[in-house]
Amino acid sequence: MSFLFSTYEIPLWFLIFAFGCAAPLWIKWYKAFYKKFIVTGILKNKMRKAAEVAEEKVDILKKATDGWNASVEHDRKTEELKKSSQKHLQTEEDQPYVKIVLKTLALNGDAGMLLQSMADKLDISSNEIKKALAYLEKNEFAEAVGSKYYLAARGKQYCIKRGYITE
Q1: Is residue 71, in this structure, part of any structural domain at all?
Q2: Quick one: 35 and 96 in the same domain?
Q3: Which domain holds residue 142?
Q4: Of 3, 60, 88, 155, which cross-links 151 as Cys (Cβ 3.0–4.6 Å)?
């Protein structure tokens, strides 16, 4: 009230008179509001619908975050599976086609070979050839240039030592 009195010089009797005159109007508005919204239940229904909409939004957000968390968890699990499968295929004995692919590369010479031509020539699936070539590349026995695979220096030394090729 001090703000009102400090900015405008309004007597207290005028404020009481204004509130008194407005009281019948407020009562009339309350009765109309009460009859229209409270007795008929419109206000309650609107509030319930608003609460339901809010709950639906919360559910949608929860499902979305659960889906996102599930996809993150799925990605993590696939990465773990990839790592475990790579650890599993660390030795030459675990990959039966490594020596065959290495020997084929050695016998082909400096021309290099495509993955599909290797698979056709050896009559082995291209996935098995890919695994063997991945192992050979990892251990620096073979190298990929474009889509062709060549025998690396270390692989050449190994093949000469084994007697697959001569210098």
Answers
A1: no
A2: no
A3: 92-162
A4: 155
Give the separation between CA 149 and CA 128, rounded to whole angstroms: 15
Q: What is the DSSP letter of 94?
A: G
pLDDT above 70 covers what percent of the chain? 86
The pLDDT tens digits along the chain (167 residues) read: 566 556 667 788 888 888 888 888 888 888 877 777 777 777 778 888 999 999 999 888 888 777 776 677 777 877 887 776 555 545 555 677 888 888 888 888 788 899 899 888 888 888 888 988 888 888 889 998 888 999 988 988 988 888 888 77
CATH number at 126 reads 1.10.10.10
Residue pointed to by tokens 């709950």: 55
Helices (H), the chain: 2-7, 12-33, 42-88, 98-108, 115-122, 126-138, 153-162
pTM for the model? 0.46
Q: What is the DSSP string of 7-30?
A: HS---HHHHHHHHHHHHHHHHHHH
Residue 118 lies in a domain: yes
Residue 46 forms part of a structural domain? no
Residues 148, 117: Cα–Cα separation, whole Å:
10
Give the chain's mean pLDDT. 81
How many domains is the chain built from? 2
